Amino acid sequence: MEIGLTHYLVISAILFSLGLYGIITRKHAIMVLMGLELVLNAANINFIAFARYGGMNIEGHIAAIFVIILAAAEAAIALAIVLNIYQNFRHVNIDEVDDLKG
What we know:
Helix content is 76%, strand content 0%. The chain is mainly α. The chain has one domain (5-89): Helix Hairpins (Orthogonal Bundle), CATH 1.10.287.
């Protein structure tokens, strides 16, 4: 049995669905960030799979590296915001946070 493009796309769709579910249903900010990371990883799998099987050559790998850099920057900024929310409200429930004026 050979692993083909369809296998990668199915795994990517599952990761994307789980990430979207985590973003929509969770109230805890860290869990929402984890869902967002799953969505970004699903996009990376698509980029690499289409680079391998779709003839994109190096462009898919470059796009995946760009998404990894974007995810690292997003994680740093988002965690700073979460720490600020916790410092002001003593919780990180995103439904109960109205503003950061404190």
